[in-house]
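Revision sheet: structure tokens.
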Amino acid sequence: MQFETVDIPEDLRYTRTHLWAKINNGMCTLGWTDYIQTNAGEVIYLELADIGTPIEVDQEFGSIETSKWVDKLYSPLNGRVVEVNKKVTSHPEVINEAPFTEGWFVKIELQSEIGFQHLMSPLEYFEHLKLCEVE
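Predicted:
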């Protein structure tokens, strides 16, 4: 699926803060969507939570600095960080180059299904992007 020039993969779920979530066998991989990385400009710096860090819905798991702004990253789900993508912390430009493949942030082992109801389908995210463009 496409919104203007950005991709919206149909096998992922999305948040209103432009994270994508890939859920598989009790694990969730999180990353930035094509839409937000395009609008944020070049990613300059990324700091992520350590492996083993417990994460709750709306808890900060990192911060990101781009050529346009600095922002915090908040988890959409409950769990524990089990893997951190060291490639993006040492080479943050990978987030701009490959947001859905090599540019992921963390993998979280899910502890509960709290937060799942807030994840959007690709179509819901598409509709959300239309509203973002109006604002």
